[in-house]
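User: structure tokens for this one?
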Amino acid sequence: MRKKFIPVSIIVILLIATGCRTNPDPLWSTIGASPTQSPPETLLNHLAGQWTLTGAFGGTATVHEIDARWVLNHEYLIFRETSRDRTTNGQPAYEAIVLLSENPKSRDCSCLWLDNTSPNGLSSGIVAHGQATADTLPFLFQYPTNGTLHTTFHYSATTDTWQWTIESDQDGKHETFGRATLVRKRKRS
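Assistant:
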């Protein structure tokens, strides 16, 4: 039994040391890879794809990459947002994984936002909700201790772009935290 434990331990240590991967991001490369059905007719369909975000958040200009894909039998759209800015150790200055859903009949939409600014995304119990219109996905995050955050995505079918605004209401004070434009990346021919 001890002889089996040593080789298995070495394999586990090697996998951890090498990051368990040959692909830079094996989990992300398989998400949404094999759709089993067509996505529902919702505004979220227009958000699926790869985007470049340019804008300013908290007064700081930034550029992010967004990769949005349908997952879980096209019930949710997951997007991964990564800033081009890097920390001193080479990691993205900002990174988020966001789950979005829209009921095709009622137009109710929901959003779970997890990012590298806080480890409390799952424990806070905050899922944003809103009511989609023909071209807008509004999400309202209600925080128990410090107000609300309005995150709104507005789609332009003419230009195939999204305008994104983030506004806060805290203690009766309304502020715009950020504005950005998402432009779809074109496939190279």
